Amino acid sequence: MTLRFSVLASGSTGNAIYVETAEKRLLIDAGLSGKKMDELFKEIGRNPKELDGILVSHEHSDHIKGVGIFARKHKLPIYANEKTWLAMESNLGAIPIDQKFTFATEEVKSFGHLDVESFGVSHDAAEPMFYCFHHEGKKLVLATDMGYVSERIKGTIKGADMYIFESNHDLNMLQMGRYPWNVKRRILSDVGHVSNEDAALALSDVITDNTSRIYLAHLSLDNNMKDLARLTVEQVLKEQGMAVGEQFDLYDTDPLKPTPLATI
Questions:
Q1: Metallo-beta-lactamase domain location, by residue (predicted)?
Q2: Phi/psi at 163 (nearest 5 deg)?
Q3: Is residue 72 over pLDDT 70?
Q4: Residue 255's closest CA among 209, 211, 204, 220?
Q5: In b/e form, how buried is each residue of 107-140, taking b as 16+ CB within 10 angstroms?
Q6: I need a labelling partner for 60 at 20 to 30 A (CA). Which of 68, 125, 183, 197 fits?
Q7: In this structure, what CATH number is given to the domain that contains residue 62?
Q8: How many domains does the chain have?
Q9: Which domain holds residue 204?
């Protein structure tokens, strides 16, 4: 019974992650249209009607755009903490009461033999949270939409086998780019997004001998590039004494194309 996942889409325009074991299948966020979500599932050869639920990290549109229509179409339960429910409910449309469930921050919820551990992050949403997935001694971490990575979070996510980790922007591209200053200030704040360099520094504190893969996620379309993110993270990790390609591998994610299903 293995743990498998695909980053269906990741970026400023929409986010969705698929996680499965032999007995359970979960979707984390659905930040694209219902039609696009169906297309992404077809690309990885999975049927969304077989999902056991949608976990919602927070209420921003790039994480919930398709949640309501997707849940209604496929009759899926939705899990979110109470503050996120209050913040997003009006944007989901009518959700039957028997499809609405609470998943508190700092809680472990079991889906069969898959244990999902939620943890709070610093981001400008009502009560944002992300997840560690535990299955038969293996650990997958999903951590994006963070203004910074606290010591508490590092303690929670340390030693994972694989990471899906935010590497949102290149600092120079953001500072020199077209965004108005108030938007730049928000991105750079403690409730904004993690830069390539800060992502690498945080990863250097949590990677252990267990770690085999890191997926760089939630890249800005305007203020980052895949090659730049990967090179920056690789260089910073090298400066911290870690050898990408020997100890572990780095992978890209895409805003519109899923990654191949990976097995932990």
A1: 13-218
A2: -125, 140
A3: yes
A4: 220
A5: eebebeebebbbbbbbbbbbbbbbbbbbbeebbb
A6: 197
A7: 3.60.15.10
A8: 1
A9: 4-263
